[in-house]
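In response to the reviewer comment on reproducibility (Comment 2.3), we provide here a single inverse folding case reported in full, input and output, so that an independent group could reproduce the run without further information from us. The structure tokens appear first.
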């Protein structure tokens, strides 16, 4: 008998809220990126106020504030801005398309 591994979903808003508390983060969006083993992993697109901020710094920061399964195992990418609608809603579809293009390269 085969038992499927349980998949734990991570709410993007929860990770975004945690990351926004970091003093060098001005904006952030989290999406799920495909993974063969897990199905999907959380990935963050981050607008930083301090160019010296590294992905490792954010991984360490989150490691102190969230459970291990909620860490950004899909990666962190620094961007100049987060795409948003006129109403201020994050346009996650654009980020997923951007990620898909990068994964094809």
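Designed residues, in position order:
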């Amino acid at each position: 008998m085969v038992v499927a591994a349980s998949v734990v979903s991570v709410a993007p808003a929860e990770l975004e809220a945690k990351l926004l508390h970091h003093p060098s983060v001005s904006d952030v969006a989290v999406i799920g990126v495909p993974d063969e083993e897990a199905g999907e992993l959380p990935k963050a697109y981050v607008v930083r106020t301090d160019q010296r901020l590294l992905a490792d710094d954010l991984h360490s920061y989150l490691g102190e504030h969230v459970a291990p399964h909620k860490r950004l195992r899909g990666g962190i990418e620094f961007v100049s801005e987060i795409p948003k609608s006129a109403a201020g809603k994050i346009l996650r579809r654009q980020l997923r398309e951007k990620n898909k293009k990068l994964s094809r390269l």
